[in-house]
Amino acid sequence: MELKRCEWVSDDPLYIEYHDHQWGVPEHDDQTLFEMLILEGAQAGLSWITILKKRAAYVEAFDEFDPHIVARYDEDKIQALLQNAGIVRNKLKIRSAVSNAQAFLELQQEFGSFDKYIWGFVGGKPKVNQWPTLDDIPAKTEEAEAMSKDLKKRGFSFVGPTICYAFMQATGMVNDHTTDCFRYGEV
């Protein structure tokens, strides 16, 4: 019997793997949270499958998303990234990754970890929604709007409410698997 998945999942094995093993699973590792924040920002205006297909190239190009390294990227490194066909070569998005790494490190200093800060927007535990269909899932929520506003105030970019909500979904801060999806009860 075939497993029932969320409607947004195509038959692409990469999408299936992502949906079945990562999307919606609560994530608390700071470096992985940084990776997802950067990838969600890179996705703005594009499809998520585009980013998933480029993810391995992103991991390599951005030094495994080590925020300490990314925060120190200089103009030469930025120019090299702009020539890297394996990633989205958008100057604003690449520069954003560098400035976001710097702001990320400041948040780590202030709160002890980015995890502690970011999970505060959902009270420290996943918000379990009960959406019957994809059409029922909102593009943003009050929590995502609050997160976006606070991140922007702290110097982050490419963190609008819709990007923040996608980040929340990806990192399991909210369970937005539809109720008929086999992963809904698992996460």
Describe the structure.
With 187 residues, the chain is mainly alpha-helical. The protein has one domain (24-175): Orthogonal Bundle (Endonuclease III, domain 1), CATH 1.10.340. It has 9 helices and 2 strands, in the order αααααααβααβ. A two-stranded parallel sheet has the order 1-2. α2 runs antiparallel to α6.
Key descriptive features of the protein:
two-stranded parallel ribbon; about 190 residues; 2 strands; Endonuclease III, domain 1; mainly alpha
Describe how the helices and strands are arranged.
Layout: H1 13-21, H2 30-43, H3 48-61, H4 67-70, H5 75-82, H6 91-111, H7 114-119, E1 127-128, H8 142-153, H9 161-170, E2 174-175
Helix pairs in contact: 2-3, 2-6, 2-9, 8-9
CATH architecture: Orthogonal Bundle
The percent of residues in helical segments reads 40-55%
N-to-C terminal Cα separation, in Å?
Answer: 21 Å
What string gives the helices and strands in order? Answer: HHHHHHHEHHE
Rg, Cα atoms, Å: 16 Å
Instruction: Work out the number of β strands.
Output: 2
- Beta-strand share of residues: under 5%
Largest sheet: 2 strands, parallel
CATH level-3 fold name? Endonuclease III, domain 1
Which strand order does the major sheet show?
Answer: 1-2
User: Residue ranges: pLDDT <50 for 5 or more in a row?
Assistant: none
